[in-house]
Amino acid sequence: MFIIKSSRKRGYSLNEPLRHESHRKPVSRRDFIAQGFLTGSASVMAPAALGMLLKSRAAEAGPLATTPTLGGMRTFCDITGGNGKIPFIAFDLAGGSNIVGSNVLVGKKGGQLDFLTTQGYSKQGLPGDMLPTDPAFVNQEYGLAFHADSPFLRGMNSKTTVTTRANVNGFVIPARSENDTSNNPHNPMYYIARAGAKGELLTLIGSQNSDSGGNSMAPSMLMDPANRPTKVDRASDVTGLVDTGDVATILSPSDTSEVLQSMVRVSDLKSDKVDTQLLTDAETKKRYGCSYVKTADTVSKFSDPQALNPGQDPKITAIFGANFGNDNEFQKTASVMKLVVQGNAGAGTITIGGCDYHTGDRMTGERRDFRTGQSIGAVLEYAAQQTPPTPVFIYVFSDGSLSSNGMVDNSTDGRGKGVWTGDNQQTAAAFVLVYNPTRKPTLLAENGIPIERRQQLGYFRPDGDVETAGSPAANNVNLLVQTVALNYMALHGEDANFSSTFAGQGLGDSTAQRAMVALTPICNGKITTPV
After folding, report:
1. Residue 138 and residue 142: Cα distance in Å, rounded?
2. Are residues 437 and 390 in contact, defined by beta-carbon separation less than 8 angstroms?
3. Measured distance between the N- and C-terminal CA atoms of the chain, rounded to whole angstroms
4. What percent of the chain is modeled with pLDDT above 70?
5. Where are the alpha helices (DSSP H) in 437-476?
6. This prediction's pTM
7. pLDDT band for position 66 (50/70/90)?
8. Which strand (E) or helix (H) includes residue 173?
9. How many CB atoms lie within 10 A of CB 270?
10. Which range, of 46-50, 453-457, 484-488, 493-497, averages the lowest pLDDT?
11. How far is 48 from 63, CA to CA, in rounded Å?
């Protein structure tokens, strides 16, 4: 065992930029984020405005008959936060973060606990006296097995209760991806939107001013120019998403709502007397009338934009604690998770910058992974504290990974683990955590596949590298994203629709797809019907 000796004893602070002799100077926005010169901001994808063009004599077209109460008309007009789908949040760790071995455990064909060699774990940052072959270094509190001294795990535990952890399960996907490049089509947002996720205010939330809304690219076949991200950096940007203008100030919100509902009823009386001369006559009238209902609902809910302010949410400030106001990563996480978990956005990405931490020490990576774990834990706990609690799907990925050469950092924050000495795409993976309020999600048991292999979709070689033949996702980032979308649909019991939803998908027939499903459904299509 080697002891690290370096002229730099202190490591890098949480927000300090990383300077690598082996890397070119940062020139792109992506380079600056990966090395921590810029933080990964949050942004929102605003839904495109829908126009309805009718013939001139159809100008008075109204909706079909509706229930004369706001609650009934909300149902009639399909106004549901998140479209009834499980909130989806992705963490994009920019720069090639350590995900496996020292954080999420990985193994050979038999699953997470089909152990690698000592050399394999050393490459993944674990010295010989901290191997998961010793049960003391295995933690399965979240279902998914973590190394007991994982900084992700320690950070998550600092923000979650034992009760919340008891209702979480997950899976890891061994998958190579290129190091330090924006060309990895990692971002799943458009897939999740196509699968049905939809917010009451926004369809998607993303990160950065890019076509994907995140650090990594989105698969090109599903990109929708109408959903180009709009950047959000702070709470004031979130509260600025809703502006009801004078309509909410001339009258009280309740009176305004009543006026708009009356307009719907008047339109109802006229609708049967009008022929729009459209084949979609009934649907056209419904959309026209529902525009009033949706406006009334917006006024009713968001007449005070501070209702969206994460800094004014006592649950959020309690979860993050005293450092919330001084930590940009926490404020960004809070802004995204509030919109998504409460159904005002369908899905979102949180980019964590500065994860290219092969700095010749271990302490820098440990500190940053701990804070990432805190953000992940905060999302889980916030979902659990909703009334009623809501499920949440968390996806964590990074562009590439890194490895250790066996030297050990025995500083306090280095914790006696292997130093990160270079990029290594061979040790890359992604993982998912799912919170279900009613019970711990269960691993799928069918077709003779052991449940241990459902918790790890693919496998690693004994030497610590991804086995590229282990799964469709192992050597193809596009198929990694499809695997995530398949599992998202499967949680709703809708994976049978995967091929029809995503024409040209590359995961094979229904039998091959089922082999890549990890968990049994936690709801029947909508989160209003948990199982």
Report:
1. 11
2. yes
3. 50
4. 70
5. 451-455
6. 0.82
7. very low
8. strand 168-174
9. 13
10. 46-50
11. 22
Separation between Cα atoms, residue 186 and residue 466, nearest integer Å: 17
H or E element that contains 434: strand 429-435
Q: Cα separation of 389 and 154, whole Å? A: 23
How much is the pLDDT for 64?
35
Kind plus residue range of the DSSP H or E element containing 122 = helix 118-123
Distances (CA, A) of 445 to 33, 270, 351, 518: 41, 56, 34, 9
DSSP state at residue 466? B
In angstroms, the CA 327 to CA 331 distance is 6
Return d(Cα 194, Cα 190) in angstroms, integer: 6
Q: What strands lie across the sheet with 392-398, from one edge to the other? A: 168-174, 429-435, 392-398, 88-93, 345-352, 202-207, 42-45, 229-232
Domain ranges for the chain, please list them.
2-44+82-241+305-530
DSSP structural state of residue 245: G
Separation of alpha carbons 249 and 367, rounded Å: 48
Place of tokens 């399965």: 140
> What mean pLDDT do residues 377-393 have?
97
Task: Name 351's bridge partners.
Answer: 92
Question: Under 8 Å CB-to-CB from 72, ≥6 apart: which residues?
Answer: 66
Helix, coil or strand: residue 1: coil
Report the distance separating Cα 74 and Cα 66, nearest Å: 10
